[in-house]
Amino acid sequence: MIMADVAAAAGRTPAERLARMVRCRTVTQPEGGDPGEFRRLHAVLEEDYPLVHRHLERTRVRGESLLYRWPGRGPDPAARPTVLMAHQDVVEATGPWGRPPFDGVVAKIHVKVGEAIALGMPLVKMVDDSEYYVKAPFDEANAADIRVGQVARINIDAYRGTDFPGVVEFISPIVAQNLDLSRTLDIDVRIEDGQDKFVAGMSADVIIVAEKKQDVLYVPSEALIREQTAYVIEDGRVVVRNVEVGIGNMLTKEVLSGLKEGETIVTSVTVKGLQNGIPVMVVDELGDE
After folding, report:
1. Which of 129, 157, 197, 260 has its CA 20 to 30 A from that of 33?
2. How many other CB atoms are there within 10 angstroms of residue 185's CB atom?
3. Which of 193, 208, 223 is the C-terminal boundary of a domain?
4. What is the pLDDT of residues 140-189, one digit of tens each?
């Protein structure tokens, strides 16, 4: 049984052991704490550190306090005892919280055993995995088009081609200036479905549906030059056409005037030498040359 306990404890990472101890609500109140929570912590300690409890003498002191004694190897009059102390309880804080308490998972431990720490130094990183959201920076030019409650589409590299539905939940009240001198507006998007596919720290692409239309003429955004002109193929030659665009995104743009349904347009507008009147040949895709 002892060997089984040692194997089970060895299979847990330090973060998992800490997470098990943190879940024990050993909070001391003026009228006293819940002894059941302290005993629960003692049981966790015994499960996760079986060798300590096999070789050290444990004494319960004044209720739920624990004293561990590690006998020396032999009598030595010059040897002095060493005392290591640690709190197993916390005192409930008074006053406003910067963030309310939450259940979570210990994702990272920032310090090592025996390492010195300073006041205010982060010890662990905890993740609230009960609900994920995506924090997305949008160009400040889009500020007037974004509103709380708008529908969004989320894409992640781990599931390419899958659109995850989302909703705009929060819009930052300030514009952030970034290191590259760009200015962006931070948006929080709640993931409506498929949360089990997300992992904290993932990168994601977010498209906010600011406006939606049905049965409209549209073209690939890459086929437009400054959203003002397009190259149309007529009788085997390129013709520059002025266009008026409506709503759209980085993938497609609505065409209000200038193009007709069924016309062939050039999507590779960066091809060298492309200009009005030159003969062209339509191909499915460009080669290496």
Report:
1. 129
2. 19
3. 208
4. 988 998 999 999 999 999 999 899 999 999 999 999 988 888 899 999 99
CB 30 within 8 A of CB 68: no
The pair of three-digit structure tokens given for residue 108, joined into one six-digit string? 């990272």
Structural domain boundaries enclosing 190: 133-208
- Number of domains comprising the chain: 3
Question: How would DSSP label each residue in 202-271?
Answer: ---EEEE-----SS--EEEGGGEETTTEEEEEETTEEEEEE-EEEEE-SSEEEEEES--TT--B-S-TTS
Q: Are strands 57-61 and 27-28 parallel, antiparallel or unpaired?
A: unpaired
Q: Are residues 141 and 33 in the same domain?
A: no
* Of 127, 161, 181, the domain-final residue: 127
Tokens 């609505």 sit at which residue?
254
Same domain, 204 and 221: no
b/e per residue 34-51 (b: at least 16 CB within 10 A): eeebbebbbeebeebebe
Q: Which amino acid is at 222?
A: E
Q: What is the largest CA-CA distance in the chain?
A: 107
Whether the Cβ atoms of residue 176 and residue 140 lie closer than 8 Å to each other: no
Q: How far apart are CA 201 and CA 2, in angstroms?
A: 39
> Whole-prediction pTM value?
0.51
83 and 123 in a single domain? The answer is yes
Q: Where is 105: in which H helix or E strand?
A: strand 105-109
For residues 253 and 271, state if they share a domain.
yes
221-235 b/e (C-beta count within 10 Å ≥ 16 → b): eebbeeeeebbbbee
What per-residue confidence (pLDDT) applies to 1? 36
Helix (H) / strand (E) containing 21: helix 14-22
